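Example record

One chain of 386 residues, shown exactly as stored in the release files.
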Amino acid sequence: MMSMSDLLLALVRVSEKAANIARACRQEETLFSQLIQKKQDVERNNAFVADFKTLADVLVQEVIKHDIGKQFSDLKDHIYGEETNEFKNELGEKIQVRMFEDVEDTARLLSKVLGGNMRVAEVLAVAAHQDVPITDLQTDPLDIPIQGLGLWVDPIDSTYQYIKGISDALPVGGLYSHGLQCVTVLIGVYDLQTGLPVMGVMNQPFVTLDPMTNRWTGQYFWGISSGSINLSSVTPAGGKQKVAAPSRESGFSAVLSTSDSERVRTLLQQGCEGRVSFAAGAGYKCLCVILGLSDVYVFSQDATYRWDCCAPHAILLSLGGGIANLRECLKSKRAGTMKEWVELVYNTPVEGVSGPEKWANKGGLVAYRSKSDLERVLSLLSTINL
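Predicted structure tokens for this chain:
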């Protein structure tokens, strides 16, 4: 019988496979422009004038669906993602990208997308089928049932940074504002009934570039929060990454999006005494909070989605934090009725809309490690009507 420990190992393994695919696609510079496609209106994020997907997005999502669905039959029909599996090649042919059981069959399908380039198709097919060894995650067997769970997948978060491919961005205080370091693969697990996240795996495919080989290496993080069980790779108990405690010498720090409203940015600049950073990618900004590079990530717009937040939300919950619905928390604060802040949930669509918008996080969000920092944000923004 499969356990939560088995699922965690499988998700980490497939996230590493996804990272390999993302790196393999980027290394084919002469072909990469052919692997980018503008999304149709029904697919696109309304926050952008033009929204794009790459073959890496589509292939990664199909690999995750295939590998997890094959190993965990109870989850097969409950794996949801940002992308459709349709990709149009240069001849205008619509190809349904999918994984076959045989690597040669997958390569033949990918070659149709790639205009007959079998060499690159075989490289991607091998990466999609290759078993990725994972060392012991140092968790005891977790007696948590995996029935009644669903998955949200963002195969390549921060696709724009992935397409631009900037490899020489420099961090400020360990935090990147742009570049390939802002790209993440996000796999979140949630309870189908309550909508609460229970497990998250985040993978950064592009962390360190070897100047000799011009090849990237990455890293992954995971967290579990279910009942009284809270485990994470980013704590010493998880045996992987120690997080530096954020400085409290001058208030608290926030990471924001440049697309947020000027009023929100101004209030947080004032409240944080200038300790505000801007970065690309919702997943990466959440990761900055997880790693202690920033105390909070605040976004007041409706332009993040379930697939952006489910994975980091689970990790933050395991660390005593969370991702709250900004608008609902502000309403409750003004009414004086809030005992527990309103966390995002992942099982119910937004009524009255279609396409990706039905899975938008309406009301904005605050990702936080400490409830005291969440309360500071709400106090700062209490005068704003969202």
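Notes: Residues 39-52, 236-248 have pLDDT under 50 and may be disordered.
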